[in-house]
Automatic annotation (TrEMBL):
Keywords on record: Membrane, Transmembrane, Transmembrane helix, Transport
Similarity comment: family membership: Belongs to the binding-protein-dependent transport system permease family.
InterPro entries the UniProt entry points to: ABC_transp_perm/SBD, MetI-like, MetI-like_sf
Every ABC transmembrane type-1 domain range: 27-208
Membrane-traversing stretches: 31-55, 67-86, 92-112, 143-168, 188-211
Name of the protein in its database record: Osmoprotectant transport system permease protein
Superkingdom in the source lineage: Bacteria
GO BP field: glycine betaine transport; transmembrane transport
Subcellular localization: Cell membrane; Membrane
Chief place where the protein resides: membrane
Membrane topology value: Multi-pass membrane protein
Length: 224
């Protein structure tokens, strides 16, 4: 029996989906960790990027610093955090590593989106008597929304894929299925785990594309 057949057999075996080591439980852990890391990353990166993009000051430096972080592998950051005093604090090393990994696309896209707003529109809004906060909320953010959501979508997909690393220090998530497959030398289980992560990443991307279309301020009635 080939790897594909054995992988299909593994995925269609009910025992592999139930229990604390089953797919549904690991999927819940994976989604929870992804959501926590993404929310923390958005809370840190988006306000900074939006304000810097609105002011037009310091943004290039912030973006360059965040992009420099991409050169450092997430696994290396995770190992260093595990060796530090934080290593004894449960999932925090994994959360910090994933947050640092998610910040660059969030910060870059949000800043670029704010800076690419037509300056003539901004000046026209100010000429109408809008305050800086009103210009940011009513003009710049709606126009920058597509790029901002693209950054969030990119970060979400990357975090979903990279959350598998949480299994290495003993954390939860779909990565545990893969690591268990390596430990048991079960190639079908390894492939099944990787396939589940890939499908989840595609589903997350699809959800964010749908959310972007539904929530885009410029698509709503009266947006003009």
């Amino acid at each position: 029996m080939g790897v594909i057949d054995r992988t299909w057999t593994w995925l269609t075996t009910g025992a592999h989906w139930s229990g604390t080591d089953g797919v549904w439980h690991r999927l819940g852990e994976h989604l929870f960790l992804t959501a926590v890391c993404l929310l923390i990353s958005c809370a840190i990166a988006l306000p900074i990027a939006v304000v810097l993009g609105h002011l037009g000051k310091g943004g290039a430096l912030a973006v360059n610093i965040s992009n420099a972080g991409r050169a450092v592998p997430t696994f290396a950051v995770l190992v260093l955090l595990l060796l530090s005093p934080l290593g004894s604090h449960g999932s925090w090393p994994t959360v910090i590593a994933l947050v640092l990994f998610a910040i660059p696309p969030l910060l870059t896209n949000a800043y670029v989106g704010m800076r690419e707003v037509d300056r003539d529109m901004v000046e026209a809004a100010r000429g109408m008597g809008m305050t800086g906060r009103q210009v940011m909320a009513r003009v710049e953010l709606p126009l920058a929304f597509p790029l901002i959501v693209t950054g969030v979508r990119s970060a979400a997909v990357q975090v979903v894929a990279t959350t598998t690393l949480a299994a290495l220090p003993g954390g939860g998530g779909l990565g545990r299925i893969i690591t268990a497959g390596f430990r048991l030398t079960d190639t079908a289980q390894v492939v099944a785990g990787a396939l589940l992560v890939a499908v989840l990443a595609l589903l997350v991307e699809g959800v964010f594309i749908l959310v972007q279309r539904l929530l885009d301020p410029l698509r709503r009635p009266g947006a003009a």
